[in-house]
């Protein structure tokens, strides 16, 4: 299928690319509902502490702000990477993509440390319904980020190997959509899980 | 709102999106930390700020309206409708009647 | 967690032992037979690695027919056990396992594959396209569904079946009350199959929106395509809910979390809520394609355009939106209070309206038409009054206050069988008789078809009508026996006799498939029903590339228009070009095996092997990411030869 339209940005040029990008947006719609269901579970169980640790005892604003800033900045740098891609600048694209991944890895590192800290405080996912739903919601998001980093590394290898073609541009664009989406989800996690129950 | 990013010399819309996102984030923190408003008001404020930031990022970062923009936009709107029904509906059902403990 | 060998290989039960032996022998027979006839290469090249939507569709249908047999035997066993008071054919534990597998198999491994199979075969053809948007993903969808089905079915002979109902309510379905692996099978097998279905949803939305042939605007699409589009939208937005619900169940059972447990602050009602948030859209996922099929068949065999096209579309969109806001009607009695119950009563009753509109449109389509009583049409005609019975009993159940009386009685069971069987199963049968010639190049025998129809239809009503009255008398569902004093015995016996007639009907279908495959005339028209839509403007069976030149659509009922105006029917060979086709792929079957193995290890809680084997999933994804295969082209001479063969020499 090569109905090529050279007037469009590189990632949209072939027919198959247009199908793939639309398909991925629809997949993101499904992911919105997936996370909404995790939020639904969290929202129902968030006050069931079973005598165990509560948000007031656990959540620290500093860690959460660091995670937020890392992820938000990585979403910004990802946007810059695509900006370079649209100007056929492979070097710029790769540079900013790698920065994005470094920030993402930083996010995962801080989050894992946060979880280890909670476990040391006696707050595991087996402790209470609140903690079960907290860890599964946050863990699902963190797992998505980690998988995204792995996926992006695969894309970087292909960009180096094949250069910037309509196919590699499309793959890069799709993973950028995925990455931005994870930050959009984080906005809601930050707001409704952490900030709403933060005690200063 | 399909800004033509092709001719920009400088990624101004991305930078603007980033800065506004930061401001919205700090505003939410401020609303919780530095005001004495009742909890329910704070929830509405930070909730609204979250939705605004999400919409902002959908347009500024994710190019929602490019390509099959119309289909993609309807898709995201329906997804958020379903999200509200699922999350809000669950919380409503689970906290009504004598089931809530 | 150490699962003992005794738990894996079940001993001491004659039924299960005979199944174990039977399965082993059958598998051996298949391996020996395929080897003897030297068909491994053929199977591998033509079916196992195919990405052709038509073949994938046929494989789905084969799975559905086999699963219908298994689910049907479950049903017969239940009917036999309840034919008389205090029967001891099945004890309570086994009865629980039987009704659980009956439900899961019929809905998830019979109805869904049958409908998705028919969608796979027909939709790209109806929209004048050469394939779906993502052919390899399509194959993966099938093989994941197959993987989930096989994992679920194996529970009968290894480990023990799930036993908490197809709805798997907590706390019964949790570790505290049902230790062992049965419900692990439920959580994990359904999860794997669900991933496949979600991918189908995405695939068909993009296909229908982006790959329609020239001139086919949304408002010129056939009704089956419309209902499939809406169905796939519901799939995309409902299946993630199931994914999460099953994941939370898995965490509770395998990792000791407290989502639905009694202790630790868990809430069992949350399961019901999440399950039905998915479960209700699910029943619309199965009914909407069925409605679409009926629309096609009724129009074709009334020789009239479908009445009220616009109102049909508004109705199915309305049903799709409403289907997301009625789910609490499945658990009115769980205590969410009068406000919640009232709101959901109203939304549930509202959904009857667009459905009613559709019934009237079908009736008006038939009015002043010239009805042809083919088997496909007979199923459609029987559907209308029988489904309506199911529908109006649904409105009765919708009233929350009244439902306190009906809930979990056989009245409820009769209601949903009266909507599912006439709605979905009759449509699947009708679809088989209608599209069989297009899929295989010969038709199912009409005489046998009529025996199939009458036996099944009569059997169905004799089986399920008594259950309304049993329910009103107080007979509860999911109960392995009843007392002689209850007075239920005569109606239970009548129902059991009905199930035998039902089984006979199914047997006739199976015989029909065998008989027609062996004896039916292969020289039939490619348009045997003088139909209205584009899938009939192809060879039978359909050529691999579907259309040598994609047709141009001028009106609704595009093929009918072409025939009546003698337009676009002749192939202009000068306009032919080489046709690009996607390559076959071994990745889907590989993923099927890997997911199956990982799933099996998770079911038995052997976490280290599961973790190691899950690396295989990542390997598969990496291979896919680095796959730059561009497919191949079908040459002009092959196209010309194929086209001349079915069109007749020019």
How is this structure best summarized?
Chain A is built from 6 helices and no strands. With 200 residues, chain A is mainly α.
Task: Give me the count of strands of chain B.
Answer: 0
Shape of chain A: elongated
Quickly give the CATH architecture of chain A.
Up-down Bundle
Taking the alpha carbons of the first and last residues of chain A, their distance comes to 58 Å
| Assembly level | heterotrimer
Strand content of chain A: under 5%
Radius of gyration of chain B, in angstroms, nearest whole number:
18 Å
The helical percent of chain A reads over 70%
Structural class determined from secondary elements of chain B: mainly alpha
**Strand tally of chain A:** 0
Q: State the helical fraction of chain B.
A: 55-70%
Which spans of chain A of ≥5 residues are poorly predicted at pLDDT below 50? none
How far from one another are the termini of chain B?
Answer: 47 Å
Please, could you describe this protein's structure?
- The complex is a heterotrimer of chains A (200), B (101) and C (650).
- Chain A is mainly α.
- Helices cover 78% and strands 0% of the residues of chain A.
- Chain A contains six helices and no strands.
- In chain A, α3 (61-86) runs antiparallel to α6 (166-194).
- The model of chain A has no long low-confidence stretch (mean pLDDT 94).
- Chain B folds into two domains: 12-62; 66-101.
- Helices cover 69% and strands 0% of the residues of chain B.
- Chain B contains three helices and no strands.
- Chain C is globular and about 75 Å long.
- Chain C has a domain at 1-68 and 103-302: Cytochrome c oxidase-like, subunit I domain (Cytochrome C Oxidase, Chain A, Up-down Bundle), CATH 1.20.210.
- Chain C is an all-alpha fold and 650 residues long.
- In chain C, 67% of the residues lie in helices and 1% in strands.
- The chains are: A mainly alpha (200), B mainly alpha (101), C mainly alpha (650).
- Chains A and B meet through α1, α3 and α6 of A and α1, α2 and α3 of B.
């Amino acid at each position: 299928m090569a109905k090529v339209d050279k007037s469009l940005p590189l990632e949209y040029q072939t027919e198959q690319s247009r199908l793939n990008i639309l398909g991925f947006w629809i997949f993101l719609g499904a992911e919105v509902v997936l996370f909404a269901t995790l939020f639904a579970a969290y929202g129902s169980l968030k006050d069931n502490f079973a005598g165990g640790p509560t948000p007031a005892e656990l959540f620290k604003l500093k860690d959460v702000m660091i995670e937020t800033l890392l992820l938000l900045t990585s979403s910004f740098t990802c946007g810059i990477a695509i900006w370079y891609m649209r100007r056929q600048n492979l070097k710029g694209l790769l540079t900013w993509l790698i920065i994005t991944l470094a920030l993402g890895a930083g996010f995962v590192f801080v989050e894992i440390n946060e979880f280890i800290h909670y476990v040391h405080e006696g707050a595991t996912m087996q402790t209470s319904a609140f903690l079960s739903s907290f860890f599964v919601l946050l863990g699902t998001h963190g797992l998505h980020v980690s998988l995204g980093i792995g996926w992006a590394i695969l894309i970087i290898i292909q960009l180096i190997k094949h250069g910037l073609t309509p196919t590699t541009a499309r793959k890069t664009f799709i993973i950028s959509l995925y990455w931005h989406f994870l930050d959009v989800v984080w906005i809601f996690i930050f707001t409704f899980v952490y900030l709403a129950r933060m005690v200063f | 709102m399909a800004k033509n990013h092709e001719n920009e010399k400088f990624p101004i819309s991305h930078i603007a999106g980033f800065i506004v996102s930061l401001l919205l984030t700090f505003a939410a923190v401020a609303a919780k930390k530095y005001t004495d408003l009742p909890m329910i008001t704070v929830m509405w404020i930070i909730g609204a700020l979250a939705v605004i930031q999400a919409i902002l990022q959908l347009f500024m970062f994710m190019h929602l309206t490019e390509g099959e923009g119309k289909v993609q936009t309807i898709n995201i709107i329906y997804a958020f409708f379903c999200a509200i029904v699922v999350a809000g509906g669950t919380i409503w059902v689970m906290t009504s009647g004598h089931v809530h403990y | 967690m150490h699962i003992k060998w005794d738990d894996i290989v079940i001993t001491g039960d004659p039924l299960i032992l005979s199944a174990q032996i039977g399965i082993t022998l059958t598998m051996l027979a298949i391996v020996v037979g395929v080897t003897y006839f030297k068909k491994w290469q053929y199977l591998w090249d033509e079916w196992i690695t195919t990405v052709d939507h038509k073949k994938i569709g046929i494989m789905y249908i084969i799975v559905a027919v086999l699963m219908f047999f298994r689910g049907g035997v479950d049903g017969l066993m239940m009917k036999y056990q309840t034919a008389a008071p205090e029967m001891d054919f099945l004890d309570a534990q086994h009865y629980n396992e039987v009704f659980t597998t009956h439900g899961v198999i019929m809905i998830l491994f019979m109805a869904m594959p049958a409908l998705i199979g028919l969608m796979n075969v027909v939709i790209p053809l109806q929209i004048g396209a050469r394939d779906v948007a993502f052919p390899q993903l399509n194959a993966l969808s099938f093989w994941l569904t197959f993987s989930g089905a096989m994992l679920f079915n194996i529970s009968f002979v290894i480990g023990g079946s799930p036993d908490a109902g197809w709805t798997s309510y907590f706390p019964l379905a949790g570790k505290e009350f049902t230790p062992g692996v049965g419900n692990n099978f439920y959580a994990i097998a359904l999860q794997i199959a669900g991933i496949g279905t979600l991918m189908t949803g995405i695939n068909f939305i993009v296909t229908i929106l982006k790959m329609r042939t020239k001139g086919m605007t949304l408002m010129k699409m056939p009704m089956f395509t419309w209902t499939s589009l809406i169905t796939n939208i519901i799939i995309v937005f409902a299946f993630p809910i199931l994914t999460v619900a099953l994941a939370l169940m898995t965490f509770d059972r395998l990792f000791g979390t407290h989502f639905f447990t009694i202790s630790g602050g868990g809430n069992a009602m949350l399961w019901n809520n999440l399950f039905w948030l998915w479960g209700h859209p699910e029943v619309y996922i199965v009914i909407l394609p069925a409605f679409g099929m009926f629309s096609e068949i009724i129009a074709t065999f009334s020789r009239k355009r479908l009445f009220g096209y616009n109102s049909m579309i508004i109705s199915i969109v309305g049903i799709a939106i409403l289907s997301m806001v009625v789910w609490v009607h499945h658990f009115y009695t769980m205590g969410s209070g009068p406000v919640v119950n009232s709101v959901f009563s109203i939304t549930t009753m509202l959904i009857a309206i667009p459905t009613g509109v559709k019934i009237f449109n079908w009736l008006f389509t038939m009015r002043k038409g010239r009805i042809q009583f083919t088997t496909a049409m007979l199923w459609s005609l029987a559907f209308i009054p029988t489904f309506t019975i199911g529908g109006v009993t649904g409105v009765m159940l919708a009233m929350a206050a009244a439902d306190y009386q009906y809930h979990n009685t056989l009245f409820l069971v009769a209601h949903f069988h009266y909507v599912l069987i006439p709605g979905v199963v009759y449509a699947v049968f009708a679809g088989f008789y209608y599209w069989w010639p297009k899929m295989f190049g010969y038709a199912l025998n009409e005489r046998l078809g009529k025996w199939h129809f009458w036996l099944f239809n009569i059997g169905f009503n004799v089986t399920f009508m008594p259950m309304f009255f049993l329910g009103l008398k107080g007979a509860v569902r999911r109960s392995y026996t009843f007392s002689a004093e209850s007075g239920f015995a005569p109606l239970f016996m009548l129902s059991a006799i009905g199930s035998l007639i039902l089984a006979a009907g199914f047997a006739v279908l199976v015989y029909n498939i065998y008989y027609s495959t062996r004896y039916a005339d292969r020289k039939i028209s490619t348009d045997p029903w003088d139909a209205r839509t584009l899938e009939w403007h192809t060879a039978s069976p359909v050529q691999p590339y579907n259309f040598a030149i994609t047709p141009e659509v001028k009106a609704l009922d595009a093929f009918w228009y072409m025939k009546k105006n003698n337009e676009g029917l002749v192939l202009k060979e000068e306009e032919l070009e080489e046709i690009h086709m996607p390559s076959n792929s071994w990745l889907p079957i590989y993923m099927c095996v890997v997911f199956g193995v990982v799933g099996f290890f998770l079911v038995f809680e052997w976490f280290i092997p599961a973790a190691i084997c899950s690396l295989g999933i990542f390997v598969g994804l990496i291979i896919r990411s680095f796959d730059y295969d561009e497919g191949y082209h079908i040459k002009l001479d092959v196209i010309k030869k194929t086209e001349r063969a079915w069109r007749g020499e020019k």
